[in-house]
Structures are given as structure tokens and as C-alpha cells.
Design goal:
By secondary structure, the chain is mostly beta strands. It has 3 domains: 7-365, Glycosyl hydrolase domain, family 43 (Tachylectin-2, Chain A, 5 Propeller); 380-532, Jelly Rolls, CATH 2.60.120.200; 547-752, Jelly Rolls (Sandwich), CATH 2.60.120.200. The chain is 0% helix and 48% strand. It contains no helices and 51 strands. The strands form 10 sheets. Strands 26, 27, 28, 29, 30, 31, 32, 33, 34, 35 and 36 form an 11-stranded antiparallel sheet that branches. Strands 37, 39, 40, 42, 47, 48, 49 and 51 form an 8-stranded antiparallel sheet that branches. A 7-stranded antiparallel sheet has the order 38-41-50-43-44-45-46, with no helix packed on it. Strand 7 and strand 8 form a beta hairpin. The N and C termini lie far apart (55 Å).
Length: 754
Amino acid sequence: MSARARRPLLAAVSALAVGAALMTPGLALAEPGAGAEPTYTNAVSDSFADTYADPAVIQAKDGWWYAYATADPLRAGDEPGIGHIARTKDWSTWEYVGTIFDETNRPGWAEESAGLWAPDIRYVDGQYVLYFTVTDTTLNEGQDSAIGVATSPDPAGPWVPTDEPIVAPRPSGDGRWYWTIDPAGFTSTDGRQWLYFGNYFGGVHAVELSADGLTSISDLTQVGSFDRYEAPYVVEHDGWYYLMGSSANCCAGPATGYSVFAGRSRDPRGPFLDADGLDLNASVTGGTTVLTQNGNDWIGAGHHAVMTDAAGQDWIVYHALDKDEPWLTDPFGINRRPMLIDRLDWIDGWPVTNAGAGPSDGPMPLPVTDSLLPGDPADPTGAFPGLAAGSDAQGGAIGVVDGTTRSATDAPRDAARLRLDVRAEDTVTVVLGEHPKRVRVTYDGSAGELRTAVLMGRGKPKGEQVSSLPRGAGWRTLVVEAGRRTVTAQVSADDLGDPMAVAGSTFPGFSLAAAPVELTGEGARVDNVGLQRPAEPVTDAAPVPEPGEVLFTDTFDGTVDDSWSWVRPQQDVQVSEGDLVWPLRSVDLVGEANTGALLLRDMPAGEWIAETELTLDLGETTVRNYQQAGLVVHESDDDFARLGTVAIWPTRTVEYGRELAASTDPADERTIYGGAIIGAPAPTMSMRIAHSTNEEGEHVYRAGISRDGESWVWGAAWTFPADAEPRLGLYAGGGAEPPTEARFHEVTVYETAP
């Protein structure tokens, strides 16, 4: 880490809610509540950085939230820095801490020209553990990326890397090296340590680690498709392990369509299946959408982490690009990817950002970081007058529980959430409620147990449950949540959605009365004690486009309707047996090629949904680059969006690509192409593109797909300028071998239902 001192910088996003957040029609986010509710506006890193990509976060034992980022310049014109650290207490006011590495602690096995990318932060066995990517090592010839690990007793460093990679470079067998990048640590509920990593060339893998998180101790298990996902991140929720990964191009300037998808498993080694039962590791690759662009300012949202606030609300922390300012101006060519946060909701068992509405670009309520107890959570003696004062090298001011002490104020009735840190080897008991109805949770470090129970009157405890705690050192985080009929407790090292133990009890007729929080122990050390009302979960998904009245339909019964017109007609395309039959040829629309045929028509004003059903059997696993067919929104050959089922190496997917000018600089004549992934294809499937306008008057085209013609998945949106007049149409191409044809069964245009 850089030796320079921490520098307080501009704060500046906390304010009163002044109105509704800026939304895309049909993608409304929850508005901030009335009154003096503090808010933020994305990007949260604006006060100290233009770009803060690949963020990883942790609430450290000193009470601060720390955010780590990859090695880009913070501001245009700055030196890159070898990874970055910033911190906040409230997700509003930030301090830049410094760099992760400098020339004094850079890994000796990293080439001088190597990038040190994509840090992931964990707290393991009493110390902070940082996993990171080294893009090129001194161990082999060629670009041989690997995963490194460094440790520190302090979240700000200095960081000491190990003498060799924790995951070594992996030969592909053809003289190249698989991309061994984007690490993320995880602790499963049996206390075992894991590391996930991977990228498009080689797939996403899991490996078990030693108890201290510093050594690989198992063979690799592939859990994500060979070329579909990168930046994996795993959390546990309701007994499931959720593997989330980013997909598509992270860094294509204004054409970046990076998005996040998830699958889940009962085992940290998978298989991870999406909501439709599709495997993230299959050729036809599954993935339920967690985060994708919605037609506002933000595109390319991905490479994320997950944090939980004091009320128990989950948040997704990620980077994205402002579509109108996608580049750093100096040095030109680096994508400008600031850090954003948004609410992460769990709807029907799946994580979705803002109930599925995607990135926010207006004022939104901040994460809850304060406590209902008096004083600073980082010094618990202010909330519990009976605590003895103590100190700790990592925690600072702490409290010591000797006997029984009660909080200075009551916990709320009906439901309460208590979070505190306790030393791994100590024992502390928490009681919430008032006689005769209470809940009791005991963290017993000496016995290696987490125990929960409901207390009703003077009888025996009800519904007792015991879970095993692994041995360890340092601090542990205990979270207790109690409400009507239930109490749940979990213990983790770092409260990053990876509990090492979970226990819960239920009992009919139980309700929580307002009463002080009670702590009991014999010299138990505690810190960061915070109490809140649990967040109210969001259970309703954001609305999606729905078709209304039919405006146009073509069933290809004998001829093509006169409303269609050809661009570069392909002579062997014909109408046959009620289908438009389109043999695939080695043609394309991307870059300077502009060789592919298009069948286009003008579209009505207002909001509408265009739908086609098509058959294109791309088989499985064989390389058929890049056979595809689907819908296209076409302003010109250098300004279009296309939605198609496509074969990309061994993977089959549905891509929503975008080509447009690389920048608004008239001297820059380049075009650039990137894409977003919508989901998994089927040999016969349906596609939709829904048109609306956003608050700037831009045209918004959102993509949806269905594998069965009944259930629909809606994904990313691309925008076109307000003065654009794109036509909509059909396309096919990408490769002539093996001989294949796309069959379009019909095209229908609907008015969007109110």
C-alpha cells in the first residue's frame, strides 16, 4: 500500500429526498420515502474517482466500510496506481486511503508489465486476506495469468503477498494459457474456505482452500461455462449457494453490455442451475438475470460484490459506464467505470437489482449504517452502560461483557436485528424480548457451538437448535434477527453473505416485546454492536412490457408483406411452407464488413413490442462461429442493435449486440461493437424487442426472449438518440458451415399494454 496519508475528500451525496428517481418507462424503481431520509445518487465513487472498477467491499473490524478496486487511474491524467482502497462510514462520505501495492510490495513473481487486477477482500482467521489477478507471471513463457493472495492485519495494509500464486497459471494444451483471473473467496456453512475464479477462455472454477484461506487443497471443479462467465461471486441465502457471474464484454465503451447472472446449488461445488433449471456450466448456458442495463444513463453493469446493511438489506456493489461519458480522456482508451450501489432484492428465491428494474440514476435511500442504540456502534460502551471498556489492535475501542448487562434503550417490538462482533474463542449470550417471551442466542466459542432457543415463561426453552462453529482466531460477526414466532442467528468472519454457521428456532404464539438487549458473558469481548428494525423485504418484481392490441402481423403465408424492404438482398431467402426460410451465409454486419442481408420495415410511433418466432438449431458443443439469426433495430450499417440466438465457440446463447460510433469526437471515426447476454436459446424460440422513450427523449429498445413461447425473460436495453428513426427487421448469417437455415415463422407488432 502507498505510504501516503489518508486524505479526506469531498463527501456530498447525502441529502433530503427531493422527488422520484429518474426511471425508464415501465422500469420504475421505489422512490425515496418522505421526510429527511438520506439519499445517494450513483455513482457513489464520484467524489474521489472517475473510475473505480471491479469493486470489492468489506465492513472491517474498525467499523469502516472499505472498497477495493482494480488498477486504473482514479482520474483522467492520473498515474494508474496498483489497485486502490477507499473507505466510508455511511456510503456517502468517502476517504481515499491509497494503493494496494507499490514497488516495495509488488509480488516478485509478477512480470513488470503485468496488471494487478480485480481484488477480492475477506477476513479469515484473524487477518485480512486479499485475492487478486496477476495478468502475466515470471513462471512461464507467454501471457500466463494467475491468482495471487496477500495478507494484512489492517484493511488498509500494508499487504504482504505470498511467494507464489494460490492458483498457478493453467496451460491450455495449445501453447497458450487459460485466463486465470477474477478471484472471489467464500466460506460455506460448514466452515470450509473456497475460492472461485475464471473467465471466458477456460471457464469458471471452484477450489477448496486451507482454513487460513492461503493455500489450494483440492482439484479444480468447473462450475461455469467455458466462455460465458467471468468475475464470479458466491453468497448463501436461505440454504442455497448462489453463484453470480458477469457476462459479455466489460469494456467496449458505449457498446458495453456487461450484465450479471445467477445460478444456485445446495453444494458450493455446484452444479449451479438457474430459475429454469439450466446449468451455468452447460453448452446452452443458463443464468437468471441479477443486474442489467435498463435504458437510463448506465450501461455495462457488472463485476460486483454484495454487502448487507445494518437493517439486513442486501446491496449490490458494481461498476458501470455512463453511456455519454464512457472513456477516460487521458489516457484515452481506458473505460470509465465508476462504482455504483443498488438494492439487491430476493424475489421468488432469486437475487434481482431494484426488484428487477436495474441500475438507478436518481436519488435513492442510502444503506442503513446507524444503530437504534445510543453512541457509536464502534464503541459499544456507549450503548451498554454495564460494559467494561477495552481496546483491540483491529477493533479499536471495544466492550468487555462480564456478567449480564442491558442496553440503555429498548429494542423495537415485533422485530429486531442485532449485529455484533465477538472474539472467536469467547462466549456471549444475547437475549431479546421481555419475560415471559424472549429469544436467546449463544455464541459459544469454547464449545464450538451456535445455539438458539425461544423462551416462553419459566418452562424449558422451545425449539432449541445447535450448529457447529469451526475453530479459529480473530473476530467473528454474530447476527441475530427475531420476529413473530422465529429467531435466526448466523456467524461469519466478514458478514459478506457467507456464514460459517446458521441456526434458527420457531414457536407458535411467540412475539417480541420492546425491551433492552441483554448480553451475558465472562470476559467476552464485543465490538461494532448495532441494532435496527429489519428491512421490509421487497416481494413484487418490477413491471415488464406486456403486449396489447396487434398492430401488424406477417405469417409468411405465400409472400412477404409489402411493408418489408431489403438491404443487400440474399437471393436464396424464400417463403416456404408458411415460413421465411433463410440459409446462413458467411456474412456479417459488424465493423466494415456490412455484408449481411437485412429485411426491414418502418415502425409506428409510440410504445410497441415486436415479436418473432424462429427455428435455428445450432446443435451443442461444436464450434459453429458465429451462426445466428434474430431481430435487428437498424438506423444505419454503423448504428444498429441486433438480438439473436448465436453459437460462440462451444457456447449457445442469446446476444443483444450494439454497434455505434466509438465516441462523440468528430475526429474519431471508429465504430465499436459490444453486446449484452439475454439468456439461453432453444432450437425454436421467440424474441421480443420493446420500444419506449426515456426522460431524455431517447429511444429505448429492450430485449426479451422465451424458450417456450409462454414464459418470458426480459433483459438489457439499448438506446438510440431522440432524433433517430431506426427500422426494425430480421437478419441471419455468421457462417455457412455446417449448412444451416433459419426459419422465421411469423412477425407480430403489438401496441404496448398500458
